[in-house]
């Protein structure tokens, strides 16, 4: 497969993780450390599974890791919705969820290229 560093989706997921990392410096996470840890782990999982999948020998394996990335993406989305309820207006969750939607489209497009549906 390709070197993961050549994948635009890998760069996008890295940027998204760095955004999450910056947000987790917010003082609210001092008391809600479990949310911080889970948010960072899930965001990092999106990024790392793209890299791991790209390093696999078979297209089907890469597709599998993209599905795992998509699951982690949903986890981050769910956590952002929770943050909205807990800390209304303190985070730019609408923008972050839009970024996630774009990342999801990219993951889905790459997955479709790697693992086209059977006829």
Describe it.
By secondary structure, the chain is mainly α. The chain is built from five helices and no strands. It has a single domain, classed as de novo design (two linked rop proteins) (Up-down Bundle). The longest helix is centred in the middle third of the chain and has 28 residues. It is elongated, with a radius of gyration of 15 Å.
The CATH homologous superfamily name equals 23S rRNA-intervening sequence
> What best-fitting shape do the alpha-carbon axes yield?
elongated
What structural class is derived from the secondary structure elements? mainly alpha
What is the name of the CATH topology?
Answer: de novo design (two linked rop proteins)
What distance lies between the first and last C-alpha atoms, to the nearest angstrom?
25 Å
How many structurally independent domains? Answer: 1
């Amino acid at each position: 497969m390709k070197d993961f560093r050549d994948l635009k989706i890998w760069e996008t997921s890295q940027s998204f993780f760095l955004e999450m990392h910056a947000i987790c410096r917010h003082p609210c996470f001092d008391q809600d450390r479990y949310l911080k840890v889970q948010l960072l782990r899930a965001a990092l999982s999106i990024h790392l599974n793209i890299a791991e999948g790209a390093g696999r020998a078979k297209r089907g394996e890469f597709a599998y890791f993209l599905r795992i990335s998509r699951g982690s993406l949903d986890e981050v989305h769910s956590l952002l919705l929770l943050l909205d309820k807990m800390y209304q207006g303190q985070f730019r969750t609408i923008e972050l969820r839009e970024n996630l939607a774009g990342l999801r489209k990219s993951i889905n497009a790459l997955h479709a290229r790697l693992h086209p549906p059977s006829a």
